[in-house]
Write a structure and sequence with these properties.
The structure holds 2 protein chains of 2 kinds. Chain A has 9 helices and 12 strands. In chain A, helix 3 packs across helix 4 and helix 3 packs parallel to helix 5. Chain B has 12 helices and 12 strands. Helix content of chain B is 32%, strand content 24%. The chains are: A alpha/beta, B alpha/beta. At the A-B interface, helix 6, helix 7, helix 8 and helix 9 of A face helix 9, helix 10, helix 11 and helix 12 of B.
Chain lengths: 319, 331
């Protein structure tokens, strides 16, 4: 299977106002030159801390944000600046599940309407919509009779199942999953993760899975990109990345998650300082302010993302 | 293990007996905590794990004497702190203990700090109330505490407002306020859940250093089993307001005895893509207004049988390991 979607040197800057009397506009560089591709039927995981730009990438792919520069190629076609009916056509292929199922479901709508809304927009008859919703509810393993209920009657995990059913309603090819389990308890998380895996097999879906939870990303993804301050710092298949991370940031990130096993505690790497702001990122390598392996020269030039081994990309001067 | 024996023979600093906390709401009574017994030994890190709505935070609030009134009531129970029942004390007496001998680290540093007050003032409040220090000597003390929690350039930072600090620094400020009177017991309720992973690591390291340095006893309330494995000596697992299992940390992860603990541990994502399916605990958490009779976990339990209609007794399966299940021997 070929490449489904490809990002080429994608940039998204937000203009923000600063200063009280002297107004000035500065750029918040949320995504600053990111390239990767997602193969059809695959799951690409995107990890990073808050403010690193991972959610922005998801929203750019959903065309909820206009890009600043760069290209998005979907099945060989440039979709970066689509408008009107061709944009509608593109959006039929791509859906999203967001983090907070308390915010993403309208509390005043019954569940069948919530799930069927994309079809109502497409002017399906009510009976056809209800039939399709029943099918979707079965697919996400919710009882069919819950269609007439309201979201507040459902638990957090069930709400996320509804959000998944809604995303599936128009038979998309590609789903952006933005932290779909981070608000759930472990037991509810496990059933959502299993469902995500099974649906992919059944419906041949392609996923972009965005999360800060490294264990969850590892469980789901075949390729993983690590982001820091708007840039990809490492990109590899999941096994390589988790077993032999190369970039100092990836190493620190992996070492920062305590294993749920008292006998498997890894070597600690504690990074000094805070996550830097993407408003005025430091020159050169953006990670140099916190890097345990900082050397002369790191702050002069920005390290390019280079292929270290086939399929394993790293942006660091010293690798 | 040596660390286990390190705390095994210490005396108890805290003993909680048959604690019951109910919330009387318009819709009915929510039995948040239904008879919880435990004791915490001097200088140990005791973990309390459970999923949301298990009652873990309410227990923390009860120990601090801040259960939300008017709905919340401690219906019965005793909390012995250094041999004295703090539930029998007057509000004035409890005030002397709270923040002084027992301190608290909340989950979200952003809502815990007053946005209108300088952080130096907020750290210093405890010195004024509990230590009776003169106003002149307080600033020096504040800077000292800020140094302990590694806040950079504390002399300038004392005059900052909370919004000028990052999440990690705010949590350090909270820890500084908690430490200001050198408490003997520190209750940390999800101290790192609101922080980024690399910042979490900094805070975990800081809390552990401080716990060792000041020889504090700590209760760690969390849902994060990784954090428990890293920090705790002993752990209790809470389900719907009852402790279902308590054990030294290694025993709990190696030989979980209660079906709920087993389910929880095996539902954690591990391994690569394409590996086995995760175990899922069937069913949903019960409605807090109508807990099922008998063992609250029985409707979701793969091992349930008729006897589970009665509440199982807490039994010691080994010297330091207790479990609340009728069938723990068989499973």
């Amino acid at each position: 299977m070929g490449t489904l979607i490809e990002l080429q040197d994608l940039r998204k800057y937000f203009s923000i106002e600063s200063g009280f009397i002297k107004k000035a506009h500065v750029d918040l560089k949320a995504v600053d030159g990111v390239s990767f591709r997602i193969e059809e039927g695959d799951t690409f995981g995107l990890v990073g801390e808050s403010g690193c730009g991972k959610t922005t990438i998801g929203k750019v792919l959903l065309k909820l944000y206009e890009v600043t520069s760069g290209k998005i190629i979907f099945r060989g076609k440039d979709v970066t600046y689509l408008q009107g009916s061709s944009l509608d056509e593109y959006r039929k292929n791509i859906q999203a599940v967001f983090q907070n199922p308390y915010a993403s479901l309208n509390p005043r709508m019954r569940i069948w309407r919530l799930i069927g809304e994309p079809l109502i927009v497409k002017r399906w008859s009510t009976q056809k919509v209800k039939d399709k919703v029943a099918e979707l509810l079965e697919l996400v393993m919710l009882p069919v009779d819950c269609g007439s209920r309201f979201p507040h009657e459902m638990s957090a995990g069930q709400r996320q199942q509804i959000a998944i059913a809604r995303a599936l309603s128009i038979d998309p090819k590609f789903i952006v999953l933005d932290e779909p389990t981070s608000l759930l308890d472990v037991s509810a998380q496990a059933s959502i993760l299993n469902m995500i895996v099974n649906l992919q097999k059944k419906l041949e879906l392609t996923y972009l899975f965005i999360s800060h939870n490294l264990a969850v990303v590892r469980f789901l993804s075949s390729r993983v990109g690590v982001m820091y301050c708007g840039k990809l710092v490492e990109l590899a298949d999941s096994r390589t990345l988790y077993q032999s991370p190369v970039h100092p940031y990836t190493q620190a990130l992996l070492a920062s998650v305590p294993a749920p096993d008292p006998d498997l505690q890894t070597k600690e790497i504690v990074l000094e300082g805070d996550v830097i702001s993407p408003i005025n990122p430091p020159s050169g390598c953006r990670f140099y302010t916190r890097c345990p392996e900082y050397q002369e020269g790191c702050k002069e030039t920005e390290p390019p993302l280079l292929e270290l081994r086939p399929g394993h990309f790293v942006a660091c001067h010293h690798r | 293990m040596s660390e286990k024996s390190m705390v095994a023979d210490r005396e108890n600093i805290l003993e909680v007996k048959d604690l019951q906390i109910h919330f009387f709401t318009d819709r009915g009574v929510i039995r948040a905590v239904e008879g919880v017994d435990f004791s915490v030994r001097k200088q140990e890190v005791w973990g309390l794990v459970g999923e949301s709505a298990s009652g873990k935070s309410v227990i923390g609030q009860a120990l601090m004497g801040v259960v939300a009134k008017p709905a919340g009531h401690i219906v019965s129970g005793e909390i012995f702190f250094k041999g004295e029942d703090i539930l029998k004390k007057s509000p004035k007496e409890v005030e002397k203990i709270r923040g002084n001998e027992i301190a608290f680290i909340p989950q979200d540093p952003t809502t815990a700090l007053n946005p209108l007050l300088r952080i130096g003032f907020q750290i210093g409040e405890a010195f004024k109330y509990h230590r009776g220090l003169k106003t002149a000597s307080i600033p020096a003390e504040i800077v000292k505490v800020m140094k302990v929690v590694n806040i950079p350039s504390p002399e300038q930072r004392v005059n900052d407002y909370p919004h000028q600090l990052s999440g990690g620094l705010k949590q350090r400020v909270i820890i500084a306020t908690a430490l200001s009177c050198q408490p003997e017991l520190l209750i940390a309720d999800e101290p790192t859940s609101a922080l980024d992973v690399t910042i979490q690591m900094q805070i975990i390291k800081l809390i552990r250093e401080i716990q060792g340095r000041f020889q504090m006893t700590m209760i760690l309330i969390t849902h994060n089993l990784g954090l428990v494995a890293k920090m705790c000596h002993r752990v209790a697992v809470l389900y719907c307001g009852r402790i279902v299992e308590e054990a030294p940390v290694r025993d709990l992860f190696r030989e979980p005895r209660h079906p709920y603990t087993r389910g929880l541990l095996s539902s954690l994502p591990k391994g690569e893509k394409g590996d086995v399916e995760l175990y899922t605990i069937p069913g949903q958490l019960p409605n807090p207004l109508y807990h099922p009779p008998g063992c609250t976990f029985s409707p979701r339990c793969p091992y349930a049988f008729e006897k589970c209609q009665e509440i199982p007794a807490m039994e010691w399966s080994s010297e330091d390991h207790r479990v609340r299940c009728w069938r723990w021997k068989e499973i």
